[in-house]
Amino acid sequence: MEEDGFQSISWDDATQRSNPGFADMSGVGGHDDLDDDDDFDKISPTSPPALDSFASSSTATVRGGGEGGGTTSTGGGLGPDGTYTWDGKSMTIEVRDPVKEHEGSKDMYVSYAVLTKTNLPTFKQPHSNVRRRFQDFVFLHDHLAKSFPACIIPPIPDKHRLEYIKGDRFSSEFVEKRRLDLQRFADRIANHPTLQRSQLVSDFLQSEQWSVAKHGHLAHPPPDAHRSLADSLGDTLVNVFSRVRKPDARFVEMAEGIEKFEDGLGNIERITARGRNRNDDLSKDYQDLAAGYQGLGYLESGITEPLNRFAEKMLDFSTLITHQNRAAVDPFLLQTHSLLAYAQAHKATIKLRDQKQLDFEELSAYLSAAAAERDRLAALNSGHAAAPVGLGTYLRDQVDKLRGTDDIHTRRERMRKLDGKIKDLQEAVTTAHDTSTAFSDEVLKEHEIFELSKQAEMKEMLGRYADGQVEMLERAMEDWDRVSGSAEAGSDRQIIPLLQRIRVDV
User: Fold this and answer.
1) How far is CA 277 from CA 79, 264, 294, 315, 330, in A?
2) CB-CB contact of 429 with 362 (8 Å)
3) Strand partners, 216
4) 295 with 197, same domain?
5) CA pair distance 35, 362, nearest whole angstrom
6) What is the mean pLDDT of each run of 10 residues along the chain (506 residues)?
7) Residues pairing with 131 in the sheet
8) Same domain for 381 and 466?
9) Torsion of the alpha carbons at 419, 420, 421 and 423, rounded to the nearest 10
10) By C-alpha distance, which of 133, 164, 195, 465 is closest to 332?
11) Are 385 and 348 in contact (CB under 8 A)?
12) Comparing C-alpha atoms, which of 332, 320, 340, 231 is closest to residue 280?
């Protein structure tokens, strides 16, 4: 595979770089447990840099891309034709032609044609056409999430369990909604410079023996089974209630921006859904009103024909409102819901980055506490006064004295064990720092890709919604201006003048 300037990192199997320091542990401060102060600067003069200095080491800049071929620091962006190009490589995926397989049997399911056009060198042919079912898309999503934990994996459509209970999962409306959701999922995969190049995506889009390829990926899962000391200690020390001690301002601002976006888009979704319901009610009211005018026309033979024509146009307008809901409002609501789910996936990635930073902070605190305990024991053996200790250490020393085990040999044995633990922790802290730094850089790139995708999707869905509204209003104006025929039919064919000339003698 050629260089694409946007490489993924296997976070659970991060390569350890050479130990940059920790040679002199005499400068470690007096931490005797993990609940004490979080001043990590006392570890050593050659410790990894503090987390608040990560901003200077990032190679990614977050900036938006415009429609005129905006570019990003990852080597690509959105072209004028709406196609994403990364280092000259692009991909388009089309999900279409749903077909019911094994129809009439208990094993019936719906398959979709997946057409791909790309110039990526990892693909055998520039064009491919395969059929995949919904479960295949779920497999792709789940395994991408395991293989690329630092990437924002697009959300997969919900299972819609209620549709299964009602027995409507094979209805044309349900299948079309699912196809649109799968299309958005495929578009986001195709527009992602890392995911589009993965071997799993390549097999999914072009393999004629997908079952064999899928079992191959199951037999060789991502290297998440190789757990380092940082991972194992992180699981022990960190819980869901922990928070990073030195939050990175870049990611705090990023998370706040996503929350504001979710709030704004959620309000739009609620207002649009409320308007849709009102339009449905209005459509029914027009139908009732049309029936009333038809009934009125039957009372007098002289006004039957114009009132029937007026009622007919009201029915047409009612149908137009319903069509506008189905053609413009419903797709807008579906895409809004999908974009909100995409934002949630981004927030999950930021939370995972915070977890990596938290692992580094907790391991650093653990290392500081172990080094402080070793220095305290060394001071006692040399006859000097030890540094102040916490209540837990003081009580343990008193118990050792009562047992008669607080002698120089016991302290030397404890120091020997602490030296081994400190050495392991030095390596673990270095690895955790490297992983946290690399993960942060990758999340910055992911945010840039998310912003480009969000801008393009917002422009597309708002444009389609506006076009649908304009089309409905133009057709309504045309219907109300004329009863039938061409524009040259004259004012005698217009509805309103006809109604104005109606006279009913009382």
Assistant:
1) 38, 20, 26, 18, 11
2) no
3) none
4) no
5) 10
6) 39 38 36 40 36 33 35 53 68 93 87 94 90 94 93 84 59 90 94 92 92 88 57 49 83 95 96 95 94 82 79 90 92 93 94 90 89 81 59 60 64 84 92 93 94 92 93 86 51 55 60
7) 113
8) yes
9) 90
10) 465
11) no
12) 320
State which H helix or E strand residue 339 sits in. helix 330-381
- Between the alpha carbon of residue 233 and those of residues 229, 245, 359, 428, 487, the distances in Å are 6, 18, 8, 9, 80
Among residues 467, 465, 472, the alpha carbon closest in space to that of 320 is found at 472
For residues 134 and 206, membership in a common domain is answered with yes
CATH number of the CATH domain containing 198: 3.30.1520.10
The secondary structure element, H or E, covering residue 382 is none
- Residue 215 structural domain: 82-220
- Does the residue 272 lie in any domain? yes
Instruction: Give the end of a domain, one of 220, 244, 274.
Output: 220
d(Cα 334, Cα 273) in Å, to the nearest integer? 11
- Geometric angle at alpha carbon 194, from 193 and 200, rounded to 5°: 125
- Pairing status of strand 127-133 against strand 76-78: unpaired
Q: Is residue 211 part of a domain?
A: yes
Tokens in use for 402? Answer: 């009562």
Q: Are residues 467 and 395 in the same domain?
A: yes
For residues 213 and 274, state if they share a domain: no
- pTM listed for this prediction: 0.73
What is residue 91's three-state secondary structure? strand
d(CA 252, CA 97): 43
